[in-house]
Design brief:
This protein is an alpha+beta fold and about 300 residues long. It has helices at about 15-20, 35-45, 65-70, 95-100, 105-120, 195-200; strands spanning about 5-10, 25-30, 55-60, 90-95, 120-125, 130-135, 140-145, 170, 185-190, 205-210, 215, 215-225, 235, 250, 265, 270-280, 290-295, 305-309. The relative contact order is 0.14. GO terms for molecular function: histone methyltransferase activity; protein-arginine N-methyltransferase activity.
Length: about 300
Amino acid sequence: FLGKRVLCAGCGAGVLSCLCAKLGAHSVAAVDPSPVALAAARAVLAANDYDAEVVLVQGRADGDLPELLESQPRGGGKKGGGGERSSPCFDVMVSERFLGDLRYAPPLLHLLAARRRWLKPGGRVLPTRVGVWVCAADFSQEASAAEAWQKPVLGGMNLAGLAPYAAAASIVDAERVSSVQPAELLSLDLASASPEEALSPQVPFCLELRPDRCTTALVVYLEVQLGEEAGAGKVSAAPSAGARHRQVLLHLPAPGPPPARALRLPGAEFPRLEGRLSASLERGGEGLAVSVSVVARGEGGSELLSSTA
């Protein structure tokens, strides 16, 4: 990050933007459509004394950026320097909203679209790669994400200002997983993938179910690679990772007329679950509709029942 112009496309609470400034970025433009997120980011930047080095902009990074972003001062803030204008082409692009909420969600699409529009040729995107995974689960449990911000993390930065903004997160832990192994749905290189690739229709998958568990839902989650170098870190919302990241939880309804009842598949009777997942943008592009159709198969491969969520 040293000496680089950084665009945080979906800055969320501003932790990554603050970290980029701390690591010596030339300038940081932090963009987010949410005024609540920007209020949290403002608190984090002020608490760590980087509020003069990061430009906060309300809006979507893949849209028309305001004049404020296109006219960032070179070497402004504490680093000093004159008032030269900088190009709206960035050396590095990151996304805290994408990393902090590892659901199969619009931030992924916004990141890919913003990269095509604003990243300088040869620039870097962090994270570098994302995988979309699915596993089976018995049920979800609610857990609060607030405790994650009660003590400093990421190089000792003060994140106590985030506590009022921490939202409850739907989290499935390893104890609720009912499939033997997860299945990978997509693998995207964020330096080259298009938004259309992230919306690939009808991705097939197959899960082997544990005989000692029941299945009532599917969990869709992301795993992201933070670099291509050996030893580069990975962030995962997998239940086995024990992380406090949100997941997409799809409850499977039992076949039959409404009102729908929850489906319950004993693994001893239904050893395999086959399905297809599709994702599409909702009206306005601010939401992502994820649906899945599944077929449970018994011994010998016979189809026993199907469900769509």
